[in-house]
Amino acid sequence: MPRQTLARIHLDNLRHNFRLARERAGSARAMAVVKADGYGHGIERVARALANDADHYAVACLEEAQALRQAGLTQPVLLMQGVHQASDLPLCEAKGFTVVVHHEHQLAWLEAGDARPAVWLKVNSGMNRLGFAPGEVRAVCQRLESAGVTVTGAMTHFACADDELSERSAEQTAVFDRATAPLAPINRSVANSAAHFRPGQAMFDWTRPGIMLYGSSPMLGRHGPELGLKAAMTLESRLIALRQLSPGEAVGYGETWRSTRPTVMGMVCIGYGDGYPRHAVNGTPVGIRGVRAPLIGRVSMDMLAVDLTDVDGASVGDPVELWGENISVDEVAACAGTISYELLTNVTRRVPRVEVQDGDWNG
Ligand SMILES: Cc1ncc(COP(=O)(O)O)c(C=O)c1O
């Protein structure tokens, strides 16, 4: 009998979130960002769940693009970091992957070789991570055209789209627009999830929603449900022990929490070895019997403690929601000093993913 610690993946919620992204993209089309193993939900599972809705996927690297083909998906795939070696270009051409070119060395690989995959240009509009300077764009396009490479798109990425008060996305959009307008009629793309919620944001031809597909808020300080999103993952475990603590007794490594009243303490069968964040502070909520109960003490590798004093009738075997539809992953992330992206992608292989469809689930 396996321990009942698992991540339920809600396929209908994934589809709901993608449809919301499409709606918010307006006349632009949305490509589903499924990198990092579908943000921890399983790249093949996510891509298949969205196959009837999404007509384009985006991934970080070639291995992820190949996983989509191996899963039988035939939609176009954008490799957002392009290739990491020249010898990968023929495979990209053969499989119909579109490669991003963000740097001189990738340009030189294309010029020197025979492979001619479709190419999107990455423009550095101010984030200063990857991409050509706006002033270099025309010359880069000319070099690619001379080499017989078709530039079918251009993209940029926002640094501060999650901050509703920041003007940076508007500034980056203007920089990108000026640099790429002369390249018309190519495909242009700027919007990550957060940009879908920015009033007045230009969406161009394609948007690239990632985190919102998984139900988490892309906006700082907001939770997914406020934005109409539904959790795509419920991380769930069970109570495996209960204990009465007297005032003054401590729990766990380092004795970082001590009871101030007679306390019913419960142990939950999940820890940082499963990807639950070790830095979650005392008071981080978990859901038990429809009640929010606080985490107490340090998270261990395989278990964590909660205060069940205010949970009527809690008993061994009760399911515990670490995050999901009732406890937002955004809230847990804030309690652990991180972001939902890190929590979702850090759920380890020890945790089985169980697909849920229309309220039912099957393993
Ligand atoms: C280039 C690029 N586009 C789109 C996305 C999706 O971003 P988000 O998950 O915030 O929607 C990412 C994510 O890191 C990215 O790197």
From TrEMBL:
The modification N6-(pyridoxal phosphate)lysine is found at residue 35. Pathway: Amino-acid biosynthesis; D-alanine biosynthesis; D-alanine from L-alanine: step 1/1. SMART domains: Ala_racemase_C. It holds the Pfam family Ala_racemase_C. InterPro entries: Ala_racemase, Ala_racemase/Decarboxylase_C, Ala_racemase_C, Ala_racemase_N, Ala_racemase_pyridoxalP-BS, PLP-binding_barrel. Residues 232-356 form the Alanine racemase C-terminal domain. Its EC number is 5.1.1.1. Its cofactor is pyridoxal 5'-phosphate. It comes from the Bacteria. The keyword Isomerase applies. GO terms for molecular function: alanine racemase activity. The active site is at residues 35, 253. Keywords: Isomerase, Pyridoxal phosphate. It catalyses: L-alanine = D-alanine. Belongs to the alanine racemase family. This is Alanine racemase. The gene is alr.
